[in-house]
Amino acid sequence: MIDLNNKGYTIKLGNDDVLIELNQFVGDRYADNNVFILCDSNTTEHCLPKIDWLDLEHLKDAEVLEVEPGEGSKSIEIYYQLIESLLELGANRKSVLINLGGGIVSDLGGFVASTFKRGIDFINVPTTLLAMVDASIGGKNGVNAGGVKNQIGTFSEPVGVFISYVFLETLPKKEINSGFGEMIKHLLISDKQALSKLDQLHSIVKIDDIAKSVAIKLRITQEDFTESGARKALNYGHTFGHAVESYLLSKGVSITHGEAVLMGMLMENQLSVELGRMSQSEKQSTENWVYAKFDLKSYFKQLEVAEVIRLLQFDKKNEGDLVSFSLVGPIGNCAIDVRPEKTIVESVLSMFCN
Ligand SMILES: NC(=O)c1ccc[n+]([C@@H]2O[C@H](COP(=O)([O-])OP(=O)(O)OC[C@H]3O[C@@H](n4cnc5c(N)ncnc54)[C@H](O)[C@@H]3O)[C@@H](O)[C@H]2O)c1
Predict the structure, then answer these.
(1) 75 CB under 6 A from ligand 1?
(2) Is the Cβ–Cβ distance between 179 and 128 less than 8 Å?
């Protein structure tokens, strides 16, 4: 087991041993209080049994709350249903909520916990690669609103993150690839040698790579918890990415968050070239590599420029009329608060949509 202990809270990474450690953690802190586990129906089916199988005394009697899988559950309506369930089940300020799932469950559960009775403890037990390396770390929680991602939320950290890679055994390949999207982002914003490391990263999920990716996210979010500066680098790929994801999901296209971020990174790299930040060769090498590994072209074909532009206007990072980007260039460096002219943004988008 790797202890990624950081200043604020416990972070453990490993195998079944992490779940045994989680049980001990809950026993030490919440033995006389209500313990709740939030799942989606897939994690109830695939992940909860792994906990049950270990017969962990402090977890086996926990009350399980379940939501449907997918972005649709990151909504204020589902949030409210969960609050009502907690009230009905007698939750109080000493209760703890364990979020057992991917980023949907940890974003939603973190928001529920951080607002219920002005905030109760929560623990993230990520079950997707994306949530292990990204969503479970850093304290951003929330739900979508008005067809736009993450419009309502809090900055609030879990009391612990317990990352057990046994959960990856049942995770579909498409979701593994989604996690690679955020891991690639972490490399490109922080490592000048990122291009030469991409192949190694993508071949198979390795515990060391998870640990390195978590370390990058932790370092940045600890430096700037509420995103007034350095943390904005983590939004690389997400300005175009969120707009593309919201648009395609609204059309019923099943795109993962990581795929949308990869699309966003390719578009933002082009923007970076247009603004003289990234070299053409760095852009081309990254693009060639991404297209060889991920099937993104069919998504690009389904985009409508005007709709994506409209959705860009809702980005939380915007100030004034201009859309704000975090742009990599050269690789390993990320500039924040870049606000290109609208015409450049539209022309880059058009290059990818045709
Ligand atoms: N808060 C943050 O800092 C942050 C960072 C990145 C992404 N996010 C958010 O995370 C969300 C995406 O998270 P995600 O990619 O984990 O998606 P997800 O939570 O939707 O999980 C993906 C799919 O895998 C299923 N699943 C989960 N674990 C499984 C397992 N072990 N075996 C089988 N199936 C399993 C889920 O039910 C779901 O169908 C987005 O809403 C995104 O905005 C948040």
Answers:
(1) no
(2) yes
